[in-house]
From TrEMBL:
Cross-referenced SUPFAM superfamilies: YefM-like
Pfam family, one: PhdYeFM_antitox
The protein's role, per its UniProt record: Antitoxin component of a type II toxin-antitoxin (TA) system.
Superkingdom of the organism of origin: Bacteria
Family indicated by similarity: Belongs to the phD/YefM antitoxin family.
Region (Disordered): 70-98
Name listed for the protein in its UniProt record: Antitoxin
Xref: InterPro entries: Antitoxin_Phd/YefM, YefM-like_sf
Residues that span the membrane, as ranges: none
Amino acid sequence: MTNETLGIVEARKRLGPLVARAVHGHQPTTITRSDEERAVLISEEEYEELLRLRREREIESVTAAIAARKRGELSTHSYSSPDELYADLGLPVSGERS
């Protein structure tokens, strides 16, 4: 599988063929706008598969954590309010969220 890398200007010029290549040839294209901003054009089918695999991994992780908790290998913490949880996680509390 070939993964071509293109700048955003060139990708715009070739968008139709790039989409066809992603959908029918299952060939991804990396599109760059800068060194820090990169995206990958893939087919919807491949995107759905990535989401499915992510969900499976998350389910396995939660299942393992529940099993570890039942075995006494993992402690849990209770929160009296959502704001307490958000604060503990370093997230904005209500009124601070945009």
